[in-house]
């Protein structure tokens, strides 16, 4: 028997859903045209007036927006309401150039909380549950998003944030946590720690809501076995709101996109052409209700496909497959978004040349990342600085750029294989995407 947080919306017949989306889209386009200069100019440039958008069928007339636009408009250029109406920001990791700062009105937060509440209820959550949130709190959307959803459902909420495994286990045991929210890698670590300490019988967990990074079906199985729970996937991105843009139901067969708030499209990343359901392409979202940071046709760079096949849970909202790759070179390592260019920037700043390689791997569900970089001939000839000191300096530089520990190996000049075409800088041995 399925549980819904908002049955009327979650099981709304498709035709009615389309009408609701159309109504909201028309209003949203008017809102951005009137309140965001960037959109006003972009639509004028494309020769589109708000009146040209009459229903969801006209969506493809609107121009795309991408991460470069976000960078150009940083920090306030895309804000759609006076700042006095904004109550919160959230942000992604990364340098200023890559960082996304998203704004929320109280109404936007309410929408976000509702989406996360729907995810928790879809995973079997009720007001009698103890919801243990160990996504990071702060600028990252994971903690605040699931925290808000948990409150809305009425669960007893444990705002644990990430890290400090001993404390996590103690609270889990003492307070009887029943729902766990964190990244799948951290869930796997917790599972391992629980089994090592022989605590499995003392833990009352029944479900987990895991996302923010790619994970495989094998990893799902191993987490489910080690924690004795059902593990649900949840997807989202800061630009669009955070977690809860889509989530799995009990069928665990794709994530339902919250279509009353976000319209998904799949496009050919090369041509921008909209692809039919079932075809793999880049996922694009249009926010039709959020006011402070109202992105239209935002290109996520996540490769994915959609299906409208009937779901056994009764929800009518379209399902997206787990992301199947990226159309850019972003990696998610230890739950953090990492671009090779960020690593390169740190190396070049310290006087190295672009002769480096990044090796990402995963053992026992733990990510590792190693950067191998060649000494320049001048550095190799200079014996005054020991290699360990050089390595430490790079480790520190990368830590402050990315926020995670990266292993660094400095190697002799001319030891890294030179490419004859496009340099293959990253070797990702994790095989995360299917
Ligand atoms: O990761 C929001 C989130 C928090 C989602 C907690 C789920 C749970 P960002 O840091 O902006 O936001 O990273 C967004 O992470 O474009 C995907 O590439 C990836 N991603 C997010 N969820 C999943 C998932 C949060 N379930 C980027 N599976 C997205 C695979 C995911 N990749």
Annotation field: number of helices: 12
Strand content: 15-25%
Rg, rounded, reads: 23 Å
Small-molecule binders here are: 5'-O-[hydroxy(phenylacetyl)phosphoryl]adenosine
Shape: globular
C-alpha end-to-end distance: 30 Å
Helix content: 25-40%
Average pLDDT score: 94
Placed side by side, the strands forming the largest sheet appear as 4-3-5-6-7-8-9-14-13
Largest sheet: 9 strands, mixed
**Strand tally:** 21
Q: Determine the structural class based on helices, strands and strand pairing.
A: alpha/beta
Q: Uncertain spans, ≥5 residues at pLDDT below 50?
A: none
Describe the protein.
This protein is an alpha/beta fold. The protein has a nine-stranded mixed beta sheet. Strands 10-11-12-15 form a four-stranded antiparallel beta sheet. It has a four-stranded mixed beta sheet with strand order 20-19-18-21. Strand 7 and strand 8 form a beta hairpin. It is globular and about 70 Å long. The model has no long low-confidence stretch (mean pLDDT 94).
Write the layout of secondary structure elements.
Layout: H1 7-10, H2 14-35, H3 37-45, H4 67-73, E1 86-91, E2 101-105, H5 106-122, E3 130-133, H6 142-153, E4 156-159, H7 165-175, E5 179-182, H8 184-196, E6 207-211, H9 217-227, E7 230-237, E8 242-248, E9 255-257, E10 262-267, E11 281-287, E12 298-304, E13 306-307, E14 319-320, E15 325-326, E16 331-333, E17 336-338, H10 340-349, E18 356-363, E19 366-374, H11 377-381, H12 387-402, E20 407-411, E21 426-428
Parallel strand pairs: 3-4, 3-5, 5-6, 6-7, 18-21, 19-20
Antiparallel strand pairs: 1-2, 7-8, 8-9, 9-14, 10-11, 11-12, 12-15, 13-14, 16-17, 18-19
Bound molecules: 5'-O-[hydroxy(phenylacetyl)phosphoryl]adenosine.
5'-O-[hydroxy(phenylacetyl)phosphoryl]adenosine (DLL) is lined by residues 92, 135, 141-142, 211-214, 233-238, 242-243, 300, 302, 322-323, 332, 337.
